[in-house]
Amino acid sequence: MTDFGRDISTGYFLVPNAADPLVEHARELERMGFEHLAVQDHPYQRRYVETFALMGVLLGATTKIRVFPDVANLPLRNPAVLAKAAASLDLLSGGRFDLAVGAGAFWDAIVAYGGPRRSPGDALAAEEEAITVIRKIWSGEGNLRFDGRFHTLAGAHSGPVPTRPIGLWFGSYGPRALRLTGRLADGWVVSLRDDPAEALRMAAAVDAAAVDAGRDPASIRRVLNVGATPTAPELADFALAGGFDTFVLSGADDRASRAFLGETIPDVREQVAAERSV
After folding, report:
1. Residue 249: its H or E element
2. Which of 40, 71, 100, 275 is least surrounded, with the fewest CB atoms within 10 Å of its CB?
C-alpha cells in the first residue's frame, strides 16, 4: 500500500482543437469546479492550436483553475526558452502553472516539424539534460553554463524567477523512464490504459527508484489521466495503493464531467478518508 495522504484533486484533459470553443470551455470547467486543466501538446497536429499560446490565453481567461501541458514535447521545445515560458506563465497567472514534460513520441511527425529523431536511450538522455537546463533557468543565477550532448548553456542569465517552485512533472512509462522519474521528478503524469494494474506496477517502480536515489517517494506527485467513466472504487484504489492524488478526466461531455465532480470524486474522497481513518 502506498498512500501518501494527499488530498484528492481533479483535472480535465483538454484537446486543443482549433474548431472548438476552447476559452468558453475552460471557463465552464472552472465554474464546474475542476482544479486543473491539462492541455495535450502535439505541435505537428494541424487541427490543434499551439499549446503554450493556448495556455496563456486560458490562464488569462480564468481565475482559479491551474494549468499544465500534458505533456510538453521536449524534442520540439528548447528547454531554456521552455523554462522561461513556464516561469512567465506562472508569474502572469499568480502561480497557477505547472510544467509536465515528455521525452517525445511520434518521431516522424517531430522530424517533419524540424525536430530530431532520437532513439529511446537518446530521448531519455536529452530529457535529463533538459531538466538540468530548466532548473538552472529557474534558479535566479547568472552566467549559467551547461555542456551536454543535446543541450547547452553558455553564460545564460536566468529570469524571471517563478513565484514559487514550479512542479516539474514527467510523463513516463518504460522502465528507464520510470527510474529517471523517481530520481529527478517533482511529479509523474501517466494515462490509464487497458490494464489498471499496470499503473500500480509503474507507481511501485517510481517509488523504488526514488528510494534508490535517496528520495522520499511521497515527494513525487501522481497525476493519472482517466477515461470518461472511471468508478470511485477504481480511483480510490489508485490513491491508496499507488499514491495517486490527481485524477484528470478525458473524453467526457458536460454530463459526465458533472457526474465525475458531483458523484464519483466525493465517493473517492469518502472511501479514501475511511481507509485512512482505519
Report:
1. strand 246-249
2. 275
Say if CB 127 and CB 180 are below 8 A apart. Answer: yes
Percentage of residues in the chain with pLDDT exceeding 90? 96
Sign of the four-CA dihedral 79, 225, 223, 55 = positive
Q: Which of 44, 108, 38 is nearest to 73 (CA)?
A: 44
pTM of the model: 0.96
For 108-113, the CB contacts below 8 A with 24+ separation are: 109/42, 109/44, 109/45, 110/44, 110/73, 110/75, 110/76, 112/44, 113/43, 113/44, 113/76
Residues 130/13/50/163 CA torsion (nearest 10 deg): -50
Burial 17-37 (b: 16+ CB within 10 A, else e): eeeeebeebbbebbebebbbb
pLDDT single digits (tens) 140-157 = 999 999 999 999 999 999
**What is the DSSP track for 39-108?**
E---TT-TTBPPHHHHHHHHHHH-SS-EEEESSEEGGGS-HHHHHHHHHHHHHHTTS-B-EEEE----HH
Q: 224, 184, 182: which is closest to 204 by C-alpha?
A: 182
Whether the CB-CB separation of 218 and 201 falls below 8 Å is answered with: no
Q: Give Cα separations from 112 to 17, 42, 72, 76, 151 (angstroms).
A: 20, 12, 17, 11, 21
